[in-house]
């Protein structure tokens, strides 16, 4: 293939306990999927159909890395999330078969330029500038279903410099993982390599340069991110 310039490497994540890498195709994110977080964002925690936004695959940051405080924001937020890794393609997947399409699970942190996101929301514009910027998707190693099953309960927790900021249970999700996968597959075909960040609990807040952010989920370990100075 005669490319005009060398293609960029395929974004990927480690598979826990192996030397394999999971190639990432797309990153879907579910908005307001915990009731208390919906309330803190000024919205009703109802069961209207879930909505999705996306991040580019090359926004991935692995565990243990430093993320520079991003440009064009003065309100840089953390969001602890369960991440679903798709392993089998499918469209119009019934809810009772959705789990068959999942390869594994990981811990995630949906980094957000909150001021830009809220400005877009208030004017009815897309959230891309607030959500889909460089190095905005911190995601840990993927744990295969064969090792961890399908976690539908267990603590999800985030600390900043050792202080707990978010603490909830996966059972608190408004839309469960099978429901999310099924609904998404009715809009477009999901394929191996797709990731779904399933939403964050209440307690979101700002980070400053020098902060150390740790996200953990029972059975899936933890991820650590340090916030560095603006590039």
Automatic annotation (TrEMBL):
List UniProt keywords, sorted A-Z. Hydrolase, Metal-binding
One matching Pfam family is FAA_hydrolase
InterPro entries membership: Fumarylacetoacetase-like_C (IPR011234), Fumarylacetoacetase_C_sf (IPR036663)
Record's keyword annotation contains Disulfide bond: no
Any one GO MF term held by the record is: acetylpyruvate hydrolase activity
Q: Where is the Fumarylacetoacetase-like C-terminal domain?
A: 27-227
Domain of life from the UniProt record: Bacteria
| Protein's UniProt keywords contain Hydrolase | yes
Xref: PANTHER family:
ACYLPYRUVASE (PTHR11820), FLUTATHIONE S-TRANSFERASE (PTHR11820:SF90)
* Protein name as annotated: Fumarylacetoacetate (FAA) hydrolase
Give the species.
Answer: Ciceribacter naphthalenivorans
